[in-house]
Amino acid sequence: MADTLDTKKADHVTEDHVEQAIKELSGDGLVAGFTPAEQKRIVRRIDLRLAVTLGCLYCISLLDRTNLGAASVAGMQTSLHMNAKNNAYTIVSVVFFISYTIFQAPAVVFIRMLGPRNFLAGIVLAWGAVMIGFGFVPSWEVMCVLRVILGALEAGFYPGCVYLLSTWYPRYDLQKRNATFYLIGSMASGWGGILAYGLMQMDGLSGLSGWRWIFIIEGILTCVLAIGAWFIIVDFPEDSPKSWHFLNEAEATFVVARIEKDRSDTFPDKFFVGKYLRNALDSKVWAFAWLYMLTTTNSYAIAYFLPIILRDGMGFSVAAAQCLTAPPYVVAAIVMFAEGWFADKWRVRGIVVVFNALMGILGLGLLGYVHNNGVRYFGVFLATTACNANCPALITYQGNNVRGQWKRALTSATLVGGGSIGGIIGTTVFRAKDAPNYRPGILACLIANALIVLIVAALSYKFRRANKRVDDGGKPIEGLQGFKYTL
What we know:
Layout: H1 15-23, H2 36-66, H3 68-79, H4 88-102, H5 104-114, H6 116-134, H7 140-154, H8 157-168, H9 174-190, H10 192-200, H11 210-230, H12 249-263, H13 273-278, H14 283-313, H15 318-323, H16 326-346, H17 350-369, H18 373-400, H19 405-428, H20 439-471
Pfam families: MFS_1
Protein name: Major facilitator superfamily (MFS) profile domain-containing protein
GO molecular function: transmembrane transporter activity
């Protein structure tokens, strides 16, 4: 441990401490007196408190957001008089994303003001209460109102998590952590169908239908996890010494120094609305939002309609349709973590996104245009893996290529806001009247993957030109001398 740093507990890490730590960076990788083994232990503690904890909350977020499909095959549509004539299921699915989209940008500002622990745990607890309310709705119109409230509450969670993770890790350590966060959520939520099937067996208990118990029990679980998470989630790196004594000042300074050396944007400027919104003039901010919108068009369509396609389109029983949703998500989890590990090692981003999009095109082609159910189910594996693996890849692609705390916050919000628009698209292109094959929805998802390939190609061209300009001594990228885009 370095003698030059005071190791007493402190509320904040100062810029003077960081400058001192950066000066102590040496060729063998020692920072502020920590050996490589000690550095790894510090990072593992961060991983457990952030990537794993946020991943568990994201799991329950996905369950709460996508359990409509499970409730639907458990009898919700019949009970609430949802049918092809009133298109109620699609309406209930879509209204969530309206409020979810509107509240994205302001929500990410509040995470800085209130602190990650208070903000994230608070909104999770609130939406858990709303979920319990879903189990007692008398009509689909009331469910629509609750879905709007749920969307407003969840609006700050995912972009807040993306933003918080990006503040703790250097650029080339980030995709593994994003993948860990996302895979815990997506893999565990993939088992949501099995959980839902088990909860359906409570049908008749206390006079409530099985589909109502799906919402009630999962809502209670959400509230319990929110309370536990408040004791685990840590604040931003510069504030970490006050987060339940998670890191002492020397350890926090080491963490901040790594980030400063990588991109020099740990400490936020004073917030001004105009300055915050001016970051939206950067074209790549919207390119990333488009990419995420196109990816989530696929992921939400699969999450909401896969149980229905398996039941109506492939002829599986209700039990089989619920249970067969799980294996594709397990494979997706394995693939996304493997991609994260190799992408960080090789420092590549765009090529991973393109590979996944091409995989999605193949999988959707098999699912939508082949008649053999075995081959179609293999297509489900490819399509599910492609869109879910692309989510952490795109989060990292974006996070690696912007600088500044408020620009990072805005870009996280616009990225996830694009994702919510993708949710609207994904839930509307699969219409009840297109059952059982849902060909228009399949075609829309195919087009979305093709557009992903084109946009990444355009960004790669833009980034290569900018990097060459830096190499030739021209204008710096993102206002930092020596900063280069990650392709």
